[in-house]
């Protein structure tokens, strides 16, 4: 993989349930780049993200990737613990900054089970930010976020890109900012 | 990360229904004399076998809480993204489950043996047999939990899947507890080692296969 790139995928194909979701797909993501995986429901956006993450194996093709972090629909946080302790389990080097960046400082002592869907989404995004991974994978990042949460996410993404990282977001809706778009299901 | 995962699972077991398998174990030991009658010789003769059956069922009781919650909440995916092999995750979960139930089970076996009028030497053999087999019981529970995670009616399926790997353990373990001979102990140990060593690989493959 080129040192200028955080992700290089060639000829990706994925068959799920006997249906070809995509084939011959090439993806390249460089430092400081944001890539929007767009497409209708069922077009394979989430599957492509999981494939890039290494959680699924492609039916064909190769992937070279930098260390990455994923925020999907699951919070992956211990519901009985206070938020700060639940996040600390994942041992991010930038935990304090991430909690502040997503406006969660006031919720640090609140058990995860009492958080709203939007607060859980922020917590999942904070987990990604805290990891310090150069490549972020975000699945439907705007789901459940209010306008304040969306603004905090946009700011966190800007910081990630400024630090030389990159972001791939799968979303069926338009994302604020300047994204390179790959349309699936066409 | 492995140590943190074991500590986390232990804490979750402690704050959850960790007492349930032990309560179940004690319930069986308490009710048996009422069902069999006050014949101390009969109770002492069947005691080791009954303790073994109760211990086996108690170890398998929390199967649905061992893997499925972490699968459903994306924790297993996040562990994989941090470079932890599924086999390592399974081994950590086996260790946590074992630490969570085995010491309590060995303690609970003492009053259970008294309730079943077992002599002291039989209690000693039973404790040793349970101690040898308890890692295998934890390993089988985690492997079956991984195989059935996310499946409909997983509890019923787990009950069926558990029988084949645990029957040899039950046969040799109960024989070791009931007799003073070394052969059943050796066979029990061999079976326990095989199950304990193989379970992380079975569970790891099942976790990978459950990803969608």
Element pattern of chain A in H and E: EEEHEEHHHEHEE
Number of strands of chain B: 0
- The low-confidence parts of chain A are none
Mean of the pLDDT scores of chain A?
A: 90
Secondary structure: helix percent of chain B: over 70%
First CA to last CA of chain B: what distance?
24 Å
Shape of chain A: globular
Tally of alpha and pi helices of chain A: 5
Short note summarizing the structure:
The complex is a heterodimer of chains A (186) and B (212). With 186 residues, chain A is α/β, with parallel strands linked by helices.
Could you walk me through the main structural features you see in this protein, from its secondary elements to its overall organization?
Chain A has helices at residues 45-53, 83-88, 95-101, 117-131, 147-162; strands spanning 5-16, 19-30, 34-38, 60-65, 68-71, 135-139, 166-170, 180-183. Chain A is α/β, with parallel strands linked by helices and 186 residues long. In chain A, the strands form two sheets. Chain A has a five-stranded parallel beta sheet, with helices on both faces. A three-stranded antiparallel beta sheet of chain A has the order 2-1-4, with helices on one face. In chain A, strand 1 (5-16) and strand 2 (19-30) form a beta hairpin. In chain A, helix 3 (95-101) packs antiparallel against helix 4 (117-131) and helix 4 packs parallel to helix 5. The longest helix of chain A has 16 residues, at 147-162. Chain A is globular, with a radius of gyration of 16 Å. The mean pLDDT of chain A is 90. The model of chain B has no long low-confidence stretch (mean pLDDT 88). Chain B is built from ten helices and no strands. Chain B has 212 residues and is mostly helical. The A-B interface holds A 50, 53-56, 68-70, 72-80, 89-91, 127 and B 1, 4, 8, 12, 15, 72-75, 77-78, 80-82, 211.
